[in-house]
Amino acid sequence: MLASPATLSLPQISQRPSIARQFGTNWFTVVMGIGIVAALTYTSPIPLPGQHSIGIGFFLLTNIAFATALGLWLWRWIRHTDEALRDFSDPNKILFYGALAMGINVIGNDYLVIGTHLFTPTTAILISKSIWLCGVVISLFTIVTVPYLLFVSHQVSLDETHASWLIPVVPPIVAAATGANLIPYWNSLTWQFSFSILILAMFGMTFFLFIMISSLYYSRLVYGGKIAGGFAPSVWIEIGPIGMTMTIFSTLPLVTQPIFGAWNSGFHALGIIFAVSMWGVGIWWIIIASLYSLLHLTDKKSKIPYSLGWWGYVFPLGSFTTGTYALNHLIGHSFFAIAGLIQFVVLAGLFSLVFTKTMIGVCDGSLLHWRSPRLHLVSQKADDRRLGNSAHGNPFTVG
Fold first, then answer.
1. 186 within 8 A of 256, measured Cβ to Cβ
2. pTM for this structure?
3. Is residue 234 over pLDDT 70?
4. Averaged over 290-309, what is the pLDDT?
5. Is residue 379 packed enough to be buried (19+ CB in 10 Å), middle (13-18) or exposed (0-12)?
6. Alpha helix (H) residue ranges in the chain
7. What CA–CA distances, in Å, run from 199 to 174, 190, 195, 252, 317?
8. How many angstroms separate the Cα of 269 from the Cα of each of 125, 180, 288, 324, 331?
9. Percentage of residues in the chain with pLDDT exceeding 90?
10. Over the stretch 155-183, which tens digit does the pLDDT of each residue have?
């Protein structure tokens, strides 16, 4: 006797969806956010109660998040290779290979900043170097591969120009900023000089593309009309490369004295001028990005639906705060110490909000669909009503 259609569909209805299949590289934005908050908490220029204990806690959480994300992403490649390969034909999904690279770089930096106080310094520095080198390789992969596919394969329109295009080109400047701290720990002056040159070259790669993409995005904001609320957090992405630029030019003059000798005094002056100038640009972008978010929050007809894109409020501001911390170390003026503390307090508030919403989204199945399809269908209909059309085309909403 043949089974009825209803009988045949029962196993499918009861089967839970694969988490690994839907796990994209956009989840590494969570690792980036937790990791940079860990380092900033631990290294606050103005002492805070329990900052080291809290920083260590975030450091451990970052490692858990990274191990989980990396495991699920690798399992996706093993069990759902077709789905993983399909990311390269999607102009939105492929952007987040940059998040994978930046997540690795952030983890490596945390081992240098925090790990040296938990493990033997030699072990922590070796781990930091190894992770950083992996991050450099993946960073160079993303900055070449993603723009090339955009040029020759992907089809996009002017209206699809968003700050998220920066995600795959930013990793080299993040690798440069985190690698600058490692320069004194390479064995010889030859190696230190070589990595200094590499860091400046990676800065140049990203900064050149940052200027071009920012010009395109500025044109989009001017001529394309107000962007949808779902894209409001992405405006903050512009702040990330600015902060990393500040970090590079505030850190290199402090660690290259043995390399450049008498020339280093000129490098020191250049670092101050360039980093402070970029700090001013960053403040302008923070104001613009804040006004854009407020515009949607105060408009009853608009909304900013939650997605992983909200981590755009965390890592870019964390990058800028990192740059402010570095400026304080370079100049030694209390202005930047106080400015860094103010930025950190704002960052901590945004991080708490975004982290909480992410945990809720994971638990209720709206970010990762781990429940049975029948239950998910009910929640999906509610999400569709809540999101409206503002999530259409938003790369952060893709799995």
1. no
2. 0.89
3. yes
4. 89
5. middle
6. 5-14, 28-42, 51-79, 81-86, 97-113, 121-152, 171-180, 189-223, 239-255, 257-260, 264-297, 315-331, 334-363, 373-387
7. 10, 14, 6, 9, 22
8. 29, 17, 29, 17, 10
9. 74
10. 888 888 899 999 999 999 999 999 999 99
Residue listed under structure tokens 């400026």: 327
CB atoms within 10 A of CB 267: 17
In the block, residue with structure tokens 């989840």: 27
Is the pLDDT score of 310 beyond 70? yes
Report helix, strand or coil for 114: coil
Structure tokens at 179: 């690698």
- Band of pLDDT at residue 301, cut at 50, 70 and 90: confident
| Residue 315: CA count within 13 A, CB half-sphere | 30
pLDDT top residue among 249 and 376:
249
Q: Which amino acid is at 154?
A: H
The amino acid that residue 239 corresponds to is I
Which tokens sit at 385? 């009503």
What tens digit of pLDDT does each residue of 75-133 get?
999 999 999 999 999 999 999 999 999 999 999 999 999 999 999 999 999 999 999 99
254 φ, ψ (degrees, to nearest 5)? -85, -15
Which residue do the tokens 């970052």 mark? 62
First to last CA, the chain: 41
Q: If you search the block for the tokens 């009988």, which residue do you land on? A: 7
Amino acid, single-letter form, for residue 325? Y
pLDDT for residue 156 = 84
What is the C-alpha radius of gyration for the chain, rounded to an integer number of angstroms? 22
Q: What is residue 256's DSSP assignment?
A: -
Contact 239/319 with Cβ under 8 angstroms?
Answer: yes
pLDDT of residue 15: 62
Quote the DSSP letter at residue 307.
S
Angle between helix axes 171-180 and 239-255 (nearest 10 degrees) is: 30
Tokens linked to 391: 């999530």
* Residue labelled with tokens 């110490």: 337
**What's the rounded Cα separation, in Å, for the pair 231 and 304?**
8
